[in-house]
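Q&A log
Question type: sequence-to-structure
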Amino acid sequence: MAIELKQELRLSQQLVMTPQLQQAIKLLQLSRLELVNLVQQELEENPVLEEALEGDEELTPAETADASPGEADATPAEAEPVEAAESPEPASAETPESEPSDAEKIADVEWDDYMDSHPQTGLETRPSGDDDFRRSIESTPNRRPSLAEHLDWQLQLSAFDGDEREVGRWIIGNLDEDGYLCSTLEELARQSGAPEEQVESVLLRIQSFDPTGVAARDLRECLLLQMHALGMDDPLANRIVEGHLDLLRKRDFRGLSRALGAPVEDVAAAAKLIGRLEPRPGRTCGGDEPVYITPDIYLYKVGDDFHILLNEDGLPKLKINSLYKEVLSDGKDVAKDTKDYVHEKVRSALWLIKSIHQRQRTIYKVMQSIIKNQREFFERGVQFLRPLNLRDVADDIEMHESTVSRVTTNKYVHTPQGIFELKYFFNSSIGRFDGEAIASESVKEKIRKIISNEDSRRPLSDQRIAEMLKSGNINIARRTVTKYREAMNLLSSTKRREVG
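Response status: OK
Response body:
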């Protein structure tokens, strides 16, 4: 077989992701806080961008249009037809005699027309320097001291000598987040260089610190410390904690009754007394700080209509620096390299501004579609949530399904029913014997209400709950009830049972 070199011409199509398109897609999936951080980073890195203050003039295309013809950067519509509907589209400009280049299309943007087509959905950015909008001292969050800091503070105030205080620091340093001691007395003695008897003496004194039960070596010791501190002299409760915690965890009251030789009612009363104690004393101090959610969207009902406001608080309003506009204007004696550099930065800045505007418009459209599909939920509650998937919304707003997925990622909406992640409104369906399917979240809410209203002395099994739902025209299996119950962190019927 002969080997030869030859030339041939082929014609093929492929999708190309330009850097601008990648940036536009990236902006879609950012939360509001992430978007603010990205804009701040761009303000630092791009000298052309600056934050617009109140009273600044609007950006006009005449101030920035100086693009050289023939540049090859593709617009999103040319680069990826599948994503054309959701990628930033340049606003219409006046038609020149010759075909404009891609760079001119980016630079020559009629921002007034563009903003007219862009719904004014955002909340106004509050001026940071105005004392009227400054958070009061009373509402300023304060970090809670950690468990180690809280115990060390008590250690400094207690009557310990220097050596004992050093041993106490070693003990505090070996506590886990729940307040339990993770090391043995021998290990602590070796680490601190103190006698084991001194370590045990210091440990007993630290176990009297707040929170009660801290520095215990196991659950049994933790509960006994609390019972002693609270003056609980119930002999039956002491016997349960001393030797029958395994049966108590299983809530096997009959087994406890047989093991202790006591009536079931007395065992149940003792178990209820023990249940008031704290098995994890360390969680009352410090721990993870609560995460406060700032909604990206606010939904208000005015009359019979729902109104959407995008939260733009803290998001800088961008504009092009006037100094660099002059560099691009005609008649300036500027080196070509300098002019090319400034032009590239202007193009990048304009694309960022348009991408942010398009992101806000896309979020607005997605929220409008969600309202259209879930109107009963916003008016009447979670039991009226309907099955919905990404394709339903994508078809409604004529965008790609992946775009809807990006838009609903890490974004929250404040509604008359509470604050929800946008993903919450997309859930699977559970069939009915007669009529339309019901959303899985609505079924979970029904299960939660059934369990909350049950007789605690005779809790309902998962099979019984499934039968009750079937009698309510919901076709659901027992294993599905179990899955939903566990997802809501609800105990099984045996662990929910109470005696007495």
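Response note: The longest strand covers residues 297-302.
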